[in-house]
Amino acid sequence: GINAEYGGGNQCLAMRAACSLLSFTRTLPRILGAGMVVGTGALSQGPPCRCSSNSSPPFMVGAEHKYPHEHWSQSVLPCTHPSFVAVLQVTDSKGDKHQALVLLKNSAPGYQTVVALTDRHDPNKCFNQVPTQQQYEAIQLAATQVAAAYLRVGCFPQMELLGNNSHVLNHSSHGYPVLELGSVDEPFCLHVHVINRGDPERGYLAGVPLRCAPPGEVMVPRKRHADWKCGDKARVAAALFESLLKVDMHPSVCILESKA
Known about the structure:
alpha+beta; globular; single chain
């Protein structure tokens, strides 16, 4: 193709390009090896991925902490809870299925919403594991459906991908710093925050004011908390679910559990 495009006088250039491409192809696995993620989705076949690579040494690992029975992570949020909105099921490009829990945070400004990878039978399956490409795709796709539910009522939803900020550098286990996902106090869990912007005084859902920062101001994480007024969270959660029902869902996404 190169020779035909530029003529026989550029055969040397073509050979150099081909050699460079071959060299890069051989080098690429070594470049990606340390950061390559292997493993499965939350509900896909095979064990959870606890290591960033099957090569040695790893630069990122999932912690293996055990959390007490009374810890929030050990309970399944019931569909009757005021925070509960829905559970979505996402089928990834490999055919594996993932669950995403949609719930309202305990902070009212912007109708703050969380979309988190979950397993309704065993939540621990989604904690403290190195996320895969398929899990990133699944949680973002699920969060996009929630964003669409807000868009249709006139809000501007902003999205943040997080993991509880429960990751630490472990300097002792491997002889060099390794990023460990999950701490003794909080598990790592891949999730998205959806924070809505618009008119702070307008009631976009159930007549409840949005209470976000004025347009043009940044709503900084951990600095945007304000309690819900009595009954407001349950009303917004119910109205969000009704809006979600009217969204033209991506064909890979469906509602697995509905708000009761």
